[in-house]
Amino acid sequence: MNIPSHLKFTPDHEWVLIEGDTATIGITDFAQRELGDIVYVDINQSTDTFAQNEVFGSVEAVKTVSDLFMPMSGKITAINSELENHPEWVNEDPYEKGWMIKVSLSSLEEAENLLDAAAYEALLS
């Protein structure tokens, strides 16, 4: 299982790449494996600002739907629109082509609530 050491993680299996005051967010390799073949990614566009742990969308797989939780408070600045035509990218390449949103962060201090790669790996075992 792929758990990149440069990322942060949530117990709900989202990953976060923090670059300055911007975060790129998706679901982990573990999450996509558990869900199975992903057929649709739905990002809530009724609001663009979300609090930490608020549901910002969902992922639909062949047999289930799973909520996506915002790892850090902020405003969505970009959505990976390519996932509309290629939801399988979340399965094939969850940390690169399968990213879901980019967020302008409200509070960098919230990163302290996230797990590093070792802690996330320990959570899974």
Roughly what is the average pLDDT, rounded to an integer? 96
In the residues, how many domains can be counted? 1
Q: Tell me the number of strands.
A: 9
Fourth CATH level, the homologous superfamily: RNA polymerase II/Efflux pump adaptor protein, barrel-sandwich hybrid domain
Report the CATH C-level class: Mainly Beta
Q: What percent strand?
A: 35-45%
Using the 3D structure, state the CATH architecture: Beta Barrel
- Compute the gyration radius: what is it? 13 Å
Give unreliable regions as ranges: none
Quaternary state of the chains: single chain
Q: How would the global form be characterised?
A: globular
Spatial strand arrangement across the major sheet: 1-2-3-9-8-5
Count of individual helical segments: 3
N-to-C SSE string, H for helix and E for strand = EEEHEEEEEHEH
Name the structural class.
Answer: alpha+beta
Written overview of the protein:
- The structure is a single chain.
- A 6-stranded antiparallel β-sheet has the order 1-2-3-9-8-5. A 3-stranded antiparallel β-sheet has the order 4-6-7, with no helix packed on it.
- The chain has 125 residues and is α+β, with helices and mostly antiparallel strands.
- It has one domain (8-107): RNA polymerase II/Efflux pump adaptor protein, barrel-sandwich hybrid domain (OB fold (Dihydrolipoamide Acetyltransferase, E2P), Beta Barrel), CATH 2.40.50.100.
- It is built from 3 helices and 9 strands, in the order E-E-E-H-E-E-E-E-E-H-E-H.
- The chain has helices spanning 29-35, 89-92, 117-124, and strands at 8-9, 14-19, 22-27, 38-43, 49-50, 55-61, 65-69, 74-79, 101-105.
- The model has no long low-confidence stretch (mean pLDDT 96).
- A hairpin with a 3-residue loop joins strand 6 and strand 7.
- Helices cover 15% and strands 36% of the residues.
